[in-house]
Design a protein that fits this description.
Length: about 800
Amino acid sequence: MKHYNPHTIEAKWQDIWAQSGVFEPLSDFSKPKQYILSMFPYPSGAIHMGHVRNYAIGDALARYYRQVGYNVLHPMGFDAFGMPAENAAIQYGIHPKQWTYENIAKMREEFKALGFSFSKTREFATCDPHYTKIEQGFFIEMYKKGLVYQKEAWLNWCPKDKTVLANEQVVEGKCWRCDTPVVQKQMPQYYLKITKYAEELLDELKNLEGHWPAQVLRMQENWIGKSQGLAFAFSLAPKSVALLADTHAQIEVFTTRIDTIYGVTFIALAPGHPIVSALLQGEHLDQASAQAILEMQNTSARARSIEKKGVLLPLYALHPLTQEPIPIYVANFVLESYGSGALMGVPAHDTRDGEFAALLNIPIKQVINEKGFLEHSDTYSGLTPEQAREKLSDLFEKQGLGRRITHYRLQDWGISRQRYWGALIPMVRCEHCKLVPEKLENLPILLPEDVKIDGEGNPLEKHPAFKACLCPECGRSAQRECDTMDTFFQSSWYFLRYTTPKELWDKEAFDPQALDYWLGVDEYIGGVEHAILHLLYARFFTKVLRDLGYVRLDEPFTCLTTQGMVLKGGAKMSKSKGNVVSPQEILEKYGADIARLYIHFVAPPSKELDWNDQALEGSARFLKRFYEKSFLAQPCDHPPRAQNLNAIEKQARAKVHLALQKCHAIFAKKQPGYPFNTLIAACMEALNTLEKTTNPALWSEAYYILTHVLEPLIPHVCFEIAQRLFKCQNFKPQEVDTTALEQDNIEIAITINGKKRASIIVAKDLDRNALLAQAKEQAHKWLEGKEILKEVIVPFKLVNFVLR
Ligand code: ANZ
Ligand code: ZN
């Protein structure tokens, strides 16, 4: 069969692989290992091109490392809890569980059709009961260690549906389902104390330098947002204290710029600040002001940041150094959750304060001059800001007015979700014992399946049989927690679980030996959209499990590769734009190898990939040629080796070995960023040169090596060719024959006015005149009748003729 039929070839190999178990990790822990991990998908039911690209990159690594003799863990699973399943339930009346597992089955088939070499025996979905059991156990251990606590939080609330809304469900301030204006409501939520690990999470980023993309490290650093500054209080003026009925005497602020203290012209409070609530309650505000403040309070901090708004309050504070009265405002850009929810306003030196002052006609006092020294700052005038910061901080600390603090932007991780399709928070509320964790032997606490999911409130709250339980502490009747966990909780430890064989999943969290052996993940591949939250939570979780005695390492992901987006026509693929390329259609038309070759060829992993159907045809043509020309090679039993070659044959052989050398260099990261596109280009060049020759031994060796080099990228066709020609069932490590690279002859390009027209193969040590003569002869059809102005030789590379 000389005609390339990808569908027959691919189906054949996919079945062989499915039955052989060759992609399973071995339990021989004496072998060198590679843990290659691609971010697992949400089981939406159909994979998109972004997944295909992500998994094609991971699969290339896994296949290469198997070739060169490593024990490889290359698992896949499903991030299976979350809102879309519930939305499907609301829309189509199908149960989230059924919807999820049906989608998983479909996606498993798609992975198979793409030829990804995932381990089957380690696959799980995060909604599997065994996973919930371990995870609820972790939650309880964290609770007992003080790493989980409850705190009131402001949540988006739809008054009509009586339900909490996620930020994505608030559309222009309104409920996505019923268009009712959303309000903010305070409710107790569970938090994980990630801030306890802020310093370590920040500090260890430097160990990842060079192994993670610099951009991701910067994003993590900014997210943690360490800043050093001074916390101190402004006293309220006596009349203001009286107005507040002695409930408040001062306002605590946090500043990183105490050097600008003489430039303070106002104080701004967050809309949810307790002093603001006290004023509203005491009815000390005119109606318009009260109304405006209520509006700010009912807008989430995120929505508030679009346009600055403020309201002047009937209160004054006293400047701690000059005792001048300072007006106090409510400002929508001040965050309740940052610092103390209040700031000192310095419009001359802070952009946001400046905009706010301009809006409300607040005076501006410049206290740092154009040369960068303090002015109008009493005895501090003339100092640099750094000097003034030190001196003023010392002063405030000595007088007991303030203290230096390190502040982190990072906040504790709120994990409560008022949704059904998630892992239940394993807590019980008892009137006598308050909050009590479930007994470990009662885990997992599973979701009841007989629920009505209609989008109005959390269905668990309306399920009395589920809600009612006995207190694990005192045995009296109590109530179950109905909230479920943020799905990021599940994705924070799935990579640890893969290390452990399935047989143990019901019994324990991890096989400690296996965990030790496989960690850390040698290469983690995924979208840059997970650069902050998922990676931060996963790092945090690993540290917590380390401190609980499960894990013996600090950082889970040794190396990270973030792949670029897949675009079409320069734009992100989306249904509304109608520019979605469906993997299913591409697979049907071209098969997996062509799609994978194309994806690797058009752009290196970290760059954006702009889908182009014509370029795809180019990849299809190459594969067809690669397959059909393989019939020119001779079948043989042992790895062939070409000998006694003429110049052009030597050239072809050199290119084959160069491709092999490049392959090893790329996977070993001697060329960073896995530029598979250059590897494919090298193979194409090798094939081009090979086609100018007829030596059967050369052809056989070339195909032996090229199938090895390309197997990680286009596995089916390589297995097919290698099996037919060499009875090769498994790929083995290939060594570069360096003598093949040593060339007596080299290829010289001939360019005319800078444009490549031809090439010649000449002896490496050919002298200048002889080289020019040969080049002119080769290029005579472009030179005929023209005047040569200049002849330029770039040694070992090219000859350029400049014509008039
Ligand atoms: C006066 C000042 C003058 C400030 C100046 C900055 C520049 P980072 O560096 O990000 O930690 N701030 C304090 N609490 C706030 C809150 N709850 N909401 C919004 N902003 C708040 O930011 C610290 C700065 O953010 C603080 O320093 C404060 O403004 C503001 F030329 O104080 B600064
Ligand atoms: Zn009790």
